Amino acid sequence: MSNPEAFPASSLPEEKRQPRQSRLVKAALACQRLGRFDVTLRNVSLTGIGGQGPHALQIGERMTVIMPGHEPMLGTVRWVAGTRFGIQTDREIETMRLRAAHNDQIVAADSKADFQIIPPPRVDTWRPGLTNGPPGQFGRKG
């Protein structure tokens, strides 16, 4: 049954969402009700952001989104779960600009790798009282 008229309007498949990229970026939101406040973005797509902040937002609320590497843009809150939220932006987000503009920001874990190889510790495995005898003989020297 691939006929769209066979399904009621409420059961039609929704429009497919844009692919999301995991990011950990500090940003800010602003609105008339709460003023300006800092948030942490965790997911970014071409047309939206997902994150967490100090306030519970309201679905349908219009927000100004302030992200590194971008001019402030307007967006609409699409979902809320406690202090987590999803916002659909009015303009497209350039994810590469988010990655490049991380001077004083939290950056995605995959954008910077700073590590060094540390050799394992040298430990003497000699244990007093144990012997290296023929197989099957265990115990103390005697």
TrEMBL record:
GO molecular function: cyclic-di-GMP binding
Database matches in InterPro entries: PilZ_domain
Residues of the PilZ domain: 32-90
Domain of life: Bacteria
Chain intervals for the UniProt region annotation (Disordered): 1-20
The protein, known as: PilZ domain-containing protein
